[in-house]
Amino acid sequence: MATGKINVSVDNIFPLIKKFLYSDHEIFLRELISNATDATLKLKHLTAIGEAKVEYGNPIIEIKVDKEGKKLHIIDQGLGMTEEEVKKYINEVAFSGAEEFLDKYKDSGKDTGIIGHFGLGFYSAFMVADKVEIITKSFKEAPAMHWSCDGSPNFELKEAKKDDRGTEIILHVADDSTEFLEDNRISELLVKYNKFMPIPIKFGTKTETLPKPEGAKEEDPAPTKEVDNIINNPVPAWTKQPADLKDEDYKGFYRELYPTQFEEPLFNIHLNVDYPFNLTGILYFPKLSNDLNVQKDRIQLYQNQVFVTDNVEGIVPEFLTMLRGVIDSPDIPLNVSRSYLQADGAVKKISSYITRKVADKLASLFKNSREDFEAKWNDIKIVIEYGMLSEDKFFEKADKFALYPTIDNTYFTFEELQEKIKDNQTDKDDKLVILYASNKEEQHSYIEAAKAKGYEVLLMDSPIIGHLMQKLETSKEKVSFVRVDADHIDNLIKKEDNQISKLSDEEKESLKTNLEEVIADKGYTVQLEAMDSESSPFIITEPEFMRRMKEMQSTGGGGMFGRGNMPEMYNLIVNTNHELVSEILNTKTAKKRERLIHQSLDLAKLSKGLLKGAELTEFIKRSYDMVK
After folding, report:
1. 614: which of 280, 398, 469, 553 lies 20 to 30 Å off by Cα?
2. Which is nearest to 265 in space by CA: 280, 242, 248?
3. What is the tens place of the pLDDT at every residue in 221-237?
């Protein structure tokens, strides 16, 4: 038997492990199972190349809980260790940076993990155990060994009785960590971190129902047997080639990832690259609303099938964090606890690759099945519009598949839209005027007025559309987006047959004075316009620039944009060619003129959705009086 001192440069490293990793102390199980997996996969490789003269077989990793004895066992059938290997890998910890670590983090208030970077995966066991034992037998011809340590730098190493190769780690669970002696807690951790580990993981047994024997009666119970309870899927869908998977396989894997999600995903994107970095995964587009505050952090990051985190910020572009699925890469640099990402060049390359892959998939879906793509547009547009706004490379590629739907559910690409409206929707500067509505119900009268003149009106109703339109106007030549209620339609679009006012300049001056005297609200700017006599007498519009600035400053967007307090400013456009306007001008009594102006203004406000509260009550009372 040998005793000794673990070769670390500070005596109090074990308390440090607990202190600096306390918030992440549950990861000890992930680390120990990862080590067991590595040992098993290395044996598989050695047997495959003939360096290990043993049968690989069908090894598993087993987890056992001994609640009475306050012990937790992790057992593998991998390489095992010789006495020399125990001394090398367990006692001589790769710990040259311990002093540097202490200096760096001694004043830090953050939970800064140290597992992994200093070769401490095994030592994470001391976060929950006050004593740890290792019983191990190498696949080589060497005696089994028993190592134990009570959480101090002192250890004991002696020969052991063990016939089968592999390693058993026994954790004597500390009094402050007895939660890890509960089956439910261990099951929770196994599902969270090890659900897709490449080696089967056994935790207890389960009862399996067998077919009834021939000749059994209907009332006879079916026979049962106890079988190993394997908690993981060692070969998840993302580890397979896309050619080997069908639609049902992808949907089945989605249900495996999100068992409480009842809606099927719209489509998936299979990531599979081995140069200049290794990355595999499957991303799913779920049905999404126009809400930018939808639940994010639904993409799971794995490293060699070991769960790391569901915070993929940095690896996945922000606009894609609304998707779901899995990304697995051994090339993503993590901090020492494997729990948080470190930004570097490799991460940026991976992010760019994912952006490009998603854009290519969307372009392919649009090209191959446009009708199906159009049917899904409302469920995916918020991701695409957000991507166009936030990622320039995605914006460039989106020209192939981004859609611009009309009020009548006709879908155009931007190029198709330009071609459609170029002959009859231009302003006095020959800019294309793209009319749009943000709410079909609220802007119904304005939409109908535009449609009556043969104009196309888009429906653009996402919360970030103002920002995106600004980017489109900047990147496209001679294009202007204008909401249908931003101005009267005849003022927006160049017409050959300009209307001539029926009123003289003197009459117009008198009319404007009468209007401004009655309209007390200073938020309205009165504009007299000569328009078709069939057009409305009073029309309220909101200048496009002011309204768009107000919308963009007040957009929540999950904190993406700031909040502002832009003033309410409207134009009151008065059609000088309408007979009601002539009556207002020519009426003999001031009281009747005032009543006609109030009624006409309130009707315009009602059409714009601005008539509320006391003003609406007064309008209704006045209307009844006029009917009488």
Report:
1. 553
2. 248
3. 888 899 999 999 999 99
